[in-house]
């Protein structure tokens, strides 16, 4: 059985779509745990109504403690051999669970990593994890659902694991399948940034092999840039980002103790800086002066990072490369202009 854990908070507009997509799975041996996190809207009541319609749905109630506490609550109550996480504003295709279970059972892997559709400002972007070329795979499920799939030894594929991390496939839990018996460390409740990545890295320390399947298993919805961040909150986020950088480095060293830190970690950190700066274009409550102050904060932090490691930072997105070129030269006004130009382009694409 697969236990699907769904944190529920302020999701009255999307929860039914999410749950119906899970009930429509071709793989039927599932339980759906709706963890209602003290939500102030009607999604808690809706959860009860949905549970009354299908015996596979259970509702777990708790006071508001956040998404990590909700997932931990679900883990404590889960009865399935396998664990799947789905967010209540996302949904999945009918063969989603079947693809993950098939990949795990055909290859003998303890972790399956898959792709997803990124619904970003109305655009559907297919994101599939790369398969390692010329690798000595230890299992294959190529015929499963017409999706290419390979399994690898975690300890033997350090460079490939870093590649998956840099490509953004290790950061989240909802494109994966886990074995409940191997989950020893829960989600970190004291963190609100990077807790999913640290959970995945801790889990990988308990596993021996992982499978990568080139099929989308989730519709990840991102219609906006999230809640507005004040300048003070951005200062806090910057501090959290640097703390997370240290913790992720430590987690990778525990996973691969015989190797030094990969440059991928710094590349990823700079990418996160740039991603956050690009979000400034969507901040409606901040003045130009406040936004430029934020840019200078990141420029200062980047300057310190580069002084320790040199300037060999590798970025793959063209907009990141352009903004980074001016950011490391502390040309704040140009960075501000480029961020706003990109924001205009995103809005234009959204309207099309």
Task: Lay out the secondary structure.
Blueprint: E1 2-8, H1 15-23, E2 30-37, H2 43-53, E3 57-62, H3 67-77, E4 82-85, H4 96-107, E5 111-120, E6 123-127, E7 139-140, E8 149-153, H5 158-166, E9 176-179, H6 195-206, E10 209-222, H7 231-255, H8 264-278, H9 288-309, H10 318-327, H11 332-351
Parallel strand pairs: 1-2, 1-4, 2-3, 5-10
Antiparallel strand pairs: 4-9, 5-6, 5-9, 7-8, 8-10
Helix pairs in contact: 5-8, 6-7, 7-8, 7-9, 8-9, 9-11, 10-11
How would you sum up this structure, described in words?
- By secondary structure, the chain is of the alpha/beta class.
- The protein has two domains: 2-222, Spore Coat Polysaccharide Biosynthesis Protein SpsA, Chain A (Alpha-Beta Complex); 231-351, no CATH class.
- Helix content is 44%, strand content 18%.
- It contains eleven helices and ten strands.
- It has helices at residues 15-23, 43-53, 67-77, 96-107, 158-166, 195-206, 231-255, 264-278, 288-309, 318-327, 332-351; strands at 2-8, 30-37, 57-62, 82-85, 111-120, 123-127, 139-140, 149-153, 176-179, 209-222.
- Strands 1, 2, 3, 4, 5, 6, 7, 8, 9 and 10 form a ten-stranded mixed beta sheet that branches.
- α7 packs parallel to α9 (288-309).
- The radius of gyration is 21 Å and the shape is globular.
- 36% of the residues are buried.
- Mean pLDDT is 88; it is low at 134-138 and 224-230.
């Amino acid at each position: 059985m697969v236990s699907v854990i769904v944190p529920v908070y302020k999701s009255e507009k999307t929860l039914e779509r999410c749950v119906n997509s899970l009930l429509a799975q071709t793989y039927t041996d599932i339980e759906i745990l709706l963890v209602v996190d003290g939500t102030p809207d009607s999604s808690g009541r809706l959860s009860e109504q949905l549970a009354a319609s299908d015996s596979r749905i259970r509702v777990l109630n708790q006071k508001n403690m956040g998404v990590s506490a909700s997932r931990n609550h679900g883990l404590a109550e889960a009865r399935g051999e396998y664990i799947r996480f789905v967010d209540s504003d996302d949904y999945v295709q009918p063969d989603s669970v079947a693809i993950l279970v098939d990949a795990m059972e055909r290859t003998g892997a303890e972790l399956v990593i898959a792709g997803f559709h990124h619904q970003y400002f109305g655009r559907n972007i297919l994101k599939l994890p790369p398969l390692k070329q010329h690798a000595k795979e230890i299992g294959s499920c190529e015929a499963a659902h017409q999706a290419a799939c390979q399994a690898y030894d975690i300890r033997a594929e350090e460079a490939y694991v870093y590649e998956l991390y840099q490509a953004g496939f290790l950061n989240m839990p909802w494109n994966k399948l886990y074995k409940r018996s191997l989950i020893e460390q829960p989600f970190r409740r004291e963190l609100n940034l990077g807790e999913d990545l640290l959970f995945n890295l801790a889990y990988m320390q308990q596993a021996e092999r992982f499978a990568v399947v080139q099929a989308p298993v989730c519709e990840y919805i991102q219609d906006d840039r999230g809640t507005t961040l004040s300048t003070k909150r951005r200062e806090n986020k910057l501090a959290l980002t640097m703390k997370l950088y240290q913790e992720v480095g430590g987690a990778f060293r525990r996973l691969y103790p015989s190797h030094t830190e990969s440059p991928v970690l710094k590349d990823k950190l700079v990418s996160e800086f740039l991603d956050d700066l690009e979000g400034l274009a969507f901040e409606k409550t901040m003045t130009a002066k406040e936004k430029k102050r934020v840019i200078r904060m990141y420029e200062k932090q980047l300057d310190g990072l580069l002084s320790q490691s040199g300037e060999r930072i590798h970025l793959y997105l063209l907009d990141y490369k352009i903004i980074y070129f001016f950011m490391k030269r502390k040309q704040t006004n140009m960075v501000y202009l480029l961020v706003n130009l990109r924001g205009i382009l995103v809005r234009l694409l959204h309207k099309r």
